[in-house]
Specification:
The strands form 3 sheets. A 7-stranded mixed beta sheet has the order 3-4-1-5-6-2-7, sandwiched between helices. Strands 8-9-10-11 form a 4-stranded antiparallel beta sheet, with helices on one face. It has 511 residues and is an alpha/beta fold. It folds into 3 domains: 325 residues, 3-Layer(aba) Sandwich (Alkaline Phosphatase, subunit A); 78 residues, no CATH class; 38 residues, no CATH class. The chain contains 15 helices and 13 strands. α7 runs parallel beside α10. 47% of the residues are buried. The protein is globular, with a radius of gyration of 23 Å. One of its GO terms (cellular component) is cytoplasm. Belongs to the sulfatase family. One of its GO terms (molecular function) is sulfuric ester hydrolase activity.
Amino acid sequence: MEPKRQIVFIMTDTTRWDMVGCYGYPDMKTPELDKLAAEGVRYDKAYSCQPVCGPARSAIFTGRFPHSNGSFTNCVPLWAGVKTIGEYLQPKGISSAYIGKWHLDGGDYFGNGVCPAGYDKDYWYDMRCYLEELSEEDRRKSRKESSSLENGGIDASFTFAHRIADRAINFLERDKDKDFFLVVSMDEPHQPYLCPEPYASMYEGYELPITPSYFDTLEDKPELERLWAGDNLKEDKSKLKIKPQLFLGCNSFADHEIGRVIDKVREVAPDAMIIYTSDHGEALGAHSLSLKGPSVYEEIAHIPMIIKGGAYMKTPVGKVYEHVTSHIDLVPTFLDYFGIKVPGELHGVSMRPIIENPESNVLHDTVFTEFHRYEQDHDGFGGLQFMRAAISDNAKLAIHLMDKDELFDSKNDPYELKNHIDDPEYASIRDSLHEKLLDMMNKTRDPFRGYQWRCRSWNKDKYSPEWECDGYTRQKVTEPGELQELDYDTGMPITEFVRYKKKYKKPAGTV
């Protein structure tokens, strides 16, 4: 009998790449993820498509960049007609369950408690579902950081992560003999950092190493970063101590709960593919910044990604992929695993070559991230901040549409202290990344594209504004069985989705 096609996709919220022990940080206690990496492939340069919760997820689960799927800021839903992975899989008879944080329904932080199309209603469980299980007193307790340490702390069973893991284990037992796609989406280690002992005290007194990035003055950087840093720029960095006890403790607790799920996978679905990642990082004071936002800094945009192969896409054991990777390729990879054709409207490609043979193949030389605003409901966090960025193995270019652009030499300046955007010695690297970025914006039909992204202060002698921009019409690629889009000029079905705009002279005698 052929093995079933099964994927378990696990994600956490706000886990930096350097918060996982196997990435070279033994102080981080994540034995379950370390074990998973030893069984598969660790991706050392994986980046979020937009480092804030909702938009990051929108790219992960639609395979389209936030600018193209509608959920380009927190609390804004996906556009009508944009499918998530469950909507591709469920009609094919694949049991699809989403358990945990969703953040794509346009509701508040917790969600609306309603199962979206494509997923098993019996297992739908977002954060509103969790809160509705609690008394009013316990709801308030669940939102307080002090709850993990006060009055005897909390039990694991009180947490969102534990209840998610319980449901995932139940699903695995029920559907172990079926083709399935299971999402396990934890809010942890995001604030309020709820975790039981021994995790709540595990990092008591521990100080994060103070790297050169903490001493960044943000001179020659975008104004938005200096505003973001605020009074943190005035701190005496020689006295700085970063002690994120509960944040790191909750991270290790999340690892424990992940281990419970993976143990059940090993028991009942040993041929399943397991994928782990996080949505974004957290500055934790680096560059005098906090949280996440319009930035390509390593602490914010760089995330962990680990894949253990399954029966239909095997991985070697304990290998490392050293080139840039992106969340945008996850949906194509899921579809490839289930033997489903990847729709042309998706922006990524299957990771199969670098899953099955990570040491011999290179999937991308450049990946992309972006930003629009932190959240529709918040007036703060900088408001509107348009950013598009291109990231290669050795350099990063960030275009801040309304501010100063950035170019970092990732190889020689790993702490990203020096902005080389105006440095003539880096002009060829900058210009190459810029062209790739513009090309991506065109190919993905970025609705915010225009000459402003091309014409920058550092290339004013090369480009000038043009009303026609690139001069092309780029219509949505439609698949067989979908409503066919029509050509504006002929009213007939499109023969070229991308075509140069034709200029017609008005017929004689018309006004």
